[in-house]
C-alpha cells in the first residue's frame, strides 16, 4: 500500500469544466448539464507549437496546467505520467488516409504528433519540465495502471507525480467500435507528503486476485460519464473529494486484478 | 536503486530469431539490413526485416490478436526456451506476482493501414474484420503477451516512441521496489509499417543506403523491426555472480522540440548522469556505450556532445543501428540484449557501415568488432518529443 496526497485537480468534461466549477456540481449544489463543448486551447503551449498541436495535446496540456496551478506546485519538480485509452485516432485517420493516396503524402507534423507521448512532450516543452516522463497504455484499464505507475514513482523517487488522463471523441470511421462519446481530460497532482494544498489522502493498494465485488455502482451522473469515456474514471475519486467524504473504492484492473483506493479528506 | 538480474533474455530481429542466430551474425559480421522488399511498401530505403513473420500466425486461441506486431512478439517468445523460463518463474512467484512491461511505438498500425485500403467506397467504413482493440490499440501487445503467457500480474505498455522498451526497465524496477510485483517480464515489439517508413521519409530522416551512424556523411536512419524479452528479478540468495544485472536507469525530457534533440545534448546528459547516480558508478567505470546512434545528423551530433561531456574520449562507443536498423519502440530491449551479449562475451561491437567518423565528434567511436574485458555497459535510447532513457548493465565475475 502506498500513500499519496492529492494536491491539485484539473478537469475538462461535458458539464464539468475546471475543478472550481465541478466541485459544487459533484456535491449536488449545482445542477449537472451534459453539454459537449469545443476543446480548450492550451495557451501554455508556445504559439509556434500550439498551431501544430492536435486535440489530445490541447486537452491533456490544458487539464495538466490547471492541476499544477491548483496544487501550487512547480511542474518542473514533478514526474509525468500520461495515459489514454485511445491516443489520437484523428491523427491515425489522417495518416492512414494519406497512405492510401499516390506517393503516400504523410504530413510530417501529423507524423511527429502521432507518437503516443506527444501530449506529454508538448507539456514538457510548454513548462520546461526536464524530468522523467512516462506515457503508458492499458486500454480501458489505463487509469488504474497509470495510478500504480504514478504511486510507484512517488514512493520510490520521493517526487510528486502529475497523472494526466485524456481521451477525445472518436472520429469516423473509428466510431463504430469502442466508441468514445465525448472529450474528457482529468489531471491529478499527487504528492509524497501533505501540504496546505492537500485535498485528500489517497491510500493505493494493488490487489492481484480480486474476489469481492468491485466498482460500487450508483446512478450518479458521473458514472454515466465514465461509461462514455474511460478517461473519466478518476471522477469516482473526485466525487468523494468534492463531498469531503472518506470512501473506499476499487478499480477493476485487467481481467483478474483490482486497484483499491482509500480516500480521506484532508480538511 | 536495488540491482536486478536479467536471468533470461531473447531477441528476434533482422539478425535472426533467438540468441544463437544473433551471436552468429555478430561474430560473422553479417548485417541485417537489405533493400526494402516489403510487398506493401515501395520506398527507396534499407530495412531490417524479420523474414519469418509472414509464416508465423499467432496461436489459434488468440487469433483475434493476429497482426504483424503480435506475431513478432510471439515469434520472439518462442526462442531460447523463454516460455519455459516464464513457466518456471510462475511456479516460483505465482502468475499474479509477475509484472509485464512492454514497449512499442506503432503497435499493430499496419492492420489499420490495411483496413484503410479496404474501406467501403461509399460509406468510408472500415471492413467488418478489422479489430482495432486487439491489434492496433497501444496496449494490444501486452494484452496479447499476458494472455499468451497466462500471466496475472500488473501489465502495461509504455509508448514513448524510441525510448519505449528502455523505459520498461525503469518502470519494472519501480514496481518491484514498491512491492507491486516480485519479478517482471520486460521487453517490447515494434514492426515494420507504412506509417514509420513514409513518416520518417516526410521528415527527410530516411537514408537511401544502409544507415551509417556517426559517419561524416550520415544521411538518415534505416527502419527495422524487433521483438525481445527479458525476465527481470532479484537474484536467488543475493548472488549476482556471472549474472547480467540492471544496475541503474536514468530518464529525462529535453523540453525542446518534437523531432529534434536539444543540440547540446543536455537532456541526454541528464539521463546518463541519473543512470550513473542510481548505479553508484563513476563514468570511468563504464567499459562500453551502446549509443542511440540513429545516423540522423542531429541525433548523432547531440549524443556525441552529451557522451563526450561525461565520458571524454576514452570509453568505447558504438551504435548497432547499422546491424539491426532502428527498431524504434523495440530499440531499448534490442540494444539491452546486445549489451548483455557484449558483457557475456567481452565483445565490443563495431559501428557497422560507418566509414569515416565525423571529424567534429569527440567520443571514441569503434568501427570494428574487438574483444576486451567488459564490466559495465551503458545503453542510450532517445525518443521523439525528447524522451530520454539510459540503462546501465553489469556483470559480476
Please describe what this structure looks like.
The complex is a heterodimer of chains A (267) and B (397). With 267 residues, chain A is of the alpha+beta class. Chain A is 34% helix and 24% strand. Chain A has helices at residues 19-26, 47-52, 55-71, 89-99, 108-113, 118-127, 142-157, 221-228, 235-242; strands spanning 2-13, 16-17, 79-83, 133-137, 161-167, 184-191, 200-207, 247-253, 257-265. In chain A, strands 1, 2, 3, 4, 5, 6, 7, 8 and 9 form a 9-stranded mixed sheet that branches. In chain A, helix 1 (19-26) crosses helix 9 (235-242) and helix 3 (55-71) crosses helix 6. The longest helix of chain A has 17 residues, at 55-71. Chain A starts with a strand and ends with a strand. The model of chain A has no long low-confidence stretch (mean pLDDT 94). In chain B, strands 1, 2, 5, 6, 7, 9, 10, 11, 12, 14, 16 and 17 form a 12-stranded mixed sheet that branches. Chain B has 12 helices and 17 strands. In chain B, 31% of the residues lie in helices and 21% in strands. With 397 residues, chain B is of the alpha/beta class. Chain B has helices at residues 18-27, 68-77, 82-93, 109-116, 132-135, 140-149, 164-177, 194-202, 266-279, 297-311, 321-324, 331-345, and strands at residues 4-13, 16-17, 33-35, 46-48, 98-103, 155-158, 183-190, 223-224, 226-233, 244-253, 288-290, 316-318, 347-348, 364-365, 370-371, 376-383, 387-395. In chain B, helix 2 runs parallel beside helix 6 and helix 7 (164-177) crosses helix 12 (331-345). The two termini of chain B are 21 Å apart. Chain B has a single domain (4-395), classed as Peroxisomal Thiolase, Chain A, domain 1. The chains are: A alpha+beta (267), B alpha/beta (397). Chains A and B meet through helix 4, helix 5, helix 6, strand 4 and helix 7 of A and helix 4, helix 6, strand 6, helix 7 and helix 8 of B. Strand 4 of chain A pairs antiparallel with strand 6 (155-158) of chain B, so a sheet runs across the interface.
Amino acid at each position: 500500500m502506498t500513500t499519496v496526497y492529492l494536491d491539485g485537480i484539473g478537469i475538462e468534461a461535458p458539464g464539468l469544466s475546471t475543478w472550481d466549477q465541478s466541485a459544487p456540481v459533484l456535491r449536488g449544489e449545482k445542477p449537472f448539464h451534459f453539454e459537449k463543448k469545443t476543446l480548450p486551447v492550451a495557451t501554455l503551449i508556445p504559439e509556434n507549437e500550439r498551431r501544430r498541436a492536435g486535440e489530445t495535446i490541447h486537452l491533456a496540456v490544458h487539464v495538466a496546467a490547471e492541476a499544477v496551478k491548483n496544487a501550487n506546485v512547480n511542474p518542473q519538480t514533478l514526474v509525468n505520467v500520461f495515459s489514454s485509452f485511445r491516443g489520437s485516432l484523428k491523427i491515425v485517420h489522417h495518416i492512414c488516409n494519406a497512405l492510401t493516396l499516390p506517393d503516400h503524402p504523410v504530413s510530417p507534423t501529423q507524423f511527429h504528433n502521432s507518437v503516443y507521448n506527444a501530449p506529454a512532450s508538448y507539456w514538457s516543452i510548454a513548462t520546461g519540465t526536464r524530468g522523467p516522463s512516462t506515457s503508458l497504455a492499458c486500454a480501458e484499464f489505463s487509469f488504474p495502471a497509470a495510478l500504480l505507475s504514478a504511486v510507484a514513482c512517488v514512493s520510490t523517487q520521493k517526487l510528486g507525480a502529475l497523472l494526466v488522463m485524456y481521451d477525445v471523441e472518436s472520429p469516423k470511421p473509428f466510431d463504430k467500435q469502442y466508441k468514445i462519446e465525448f472529450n474528457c481530460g482529468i489531471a491529478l497532482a499527487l504528492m509524497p507528503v501533505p501540504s496546505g494544498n492537500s485535498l485528500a489522502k489517497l491510500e493505493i493498494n494493488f490487489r492481484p486476485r480480486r474476489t469481492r465485488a468491485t466498482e460500487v455502482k450508483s446512478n450518479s451522473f458521473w458514472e454515466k460519464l465514465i461509461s462514455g469515456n474511460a478517461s473519466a474514471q478518476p471522477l469516482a475519486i473526485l466525487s468523494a473529494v468534492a463531498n469531503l467524504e472518506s470512501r473506499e473504492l476499487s478499480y477493476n484492473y485487467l481481467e483478474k486484478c483490482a486497484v483499491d483506493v482509500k480516500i480521506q479528506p484532508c480538511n | 536503486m536495488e540491482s536486478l538480474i536479467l536471468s533470461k533474455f531473447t531477441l528476434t530481429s533482422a539478425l535472426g530469431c533467438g540468441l544463437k542466430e544473433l551471436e552468429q551474425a555478430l561474430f560473422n559480421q553479417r548485417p541485417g539490413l537489405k533493400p526494402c522488399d516489403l510487398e506493401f511498401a515501395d520506398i527507396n530505403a534499407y530495412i531490417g526485416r524479420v523474414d519469418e513473420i509472414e509464416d508465423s500466425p499467432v496461436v489459434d486461441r488468440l487469433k483475434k490478436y493476429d497482426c504483424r506486431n503480435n506475431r513478432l512478439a510471439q515469434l520472439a517468445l518462442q526462442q531460447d526456451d523463454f516460455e519455459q523460463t516464464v513457466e518456471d518463474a510462475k511456479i516460483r512467484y505465482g502468475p499474479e506476482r509477475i509484472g509485464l512491461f512492454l514497449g512499442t511505438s506503432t503497435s499493430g498500425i499496419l492492420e489499420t493501414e490495411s483496413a484503410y485500403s479496404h474501406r467501403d467506397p461509399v460509406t468510408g467504413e472500415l471492413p467488418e474484420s478489422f479489430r482495432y482493440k486487439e491489434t492496433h490499440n497501444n496496449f494490444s501487445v501486452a494484452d496479447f503477451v499476458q494472455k499468451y503467457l497466462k500471466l496475472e500480474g500488473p501489465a502495461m505498455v509504455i509508448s514513448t516512441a524510441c525510448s519505449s522498451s528502455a523505459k520498461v526497465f525503469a518502470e519494472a524496477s519501480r514496481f518491484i521496489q514498491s512491492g507491486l510485483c516480485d519479478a517482471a517480464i520486460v521487453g517490447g515489439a515494434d514492426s515494420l509499417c507504412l506509417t514509420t517508413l513514409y513518416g520518417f521519409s516526410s521528415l527527410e530522416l530516411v537514408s537511401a543506403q544502409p544507415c551509417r551512424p556517426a559517419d561524416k556523411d550520415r544521411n538518415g536512419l534505416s527502419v527495422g523491426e524487433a521483438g525481445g524479452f527479458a525476465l527481470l528479478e532479484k537474484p536467488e540468495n543475493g548472488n549476482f555472480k556471472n549474472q547480467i544485472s540492471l544496475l541503474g536507469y536514468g530518464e529525462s525530457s529535453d523540453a525542446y522540440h518534437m523531432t529534434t534533440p536539444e543540440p547540446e545534448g543536455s537532456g541526454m546528459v541528464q539521463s546518463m548522469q541519473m543512470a550513473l547516480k542510481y548505479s553508484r558508478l563513476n563514468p570511468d567505470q563504464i567499459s562500453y556505450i551502446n549509443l542511440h546512434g540513429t545516423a540522423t545528423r542531429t541525433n548523432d551530433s547531440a549524443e556525441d556532445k552529451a557522451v563526450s561531456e561525461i565520458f571524454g574520449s576514452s570509453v568505447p562507443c558504438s551504435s548497432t543501428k547499422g546491424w539491426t536498423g532502428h527498431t524504434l519502440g523495440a530499440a531499448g530491449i534490442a540494444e539491452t540484449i546486445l549489451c548483455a551479449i557484449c558483457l557475456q562475451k567481452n565483445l565490443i561491437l563495431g559501428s557497422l557501415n560507418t566509414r569515416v567518423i565525423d571529424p567534429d565528434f569527440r567520443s571514441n567511436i569503434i568501427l570494428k568488432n574487438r574483444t576486451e574485458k567488459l564490466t559495465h555497459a551503458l545503453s542510450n535510447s532517445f525518443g521523439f518529443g525528447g524522451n530520454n532513457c539510459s540503462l546501465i548493465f553489469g556483470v559480476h565475475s
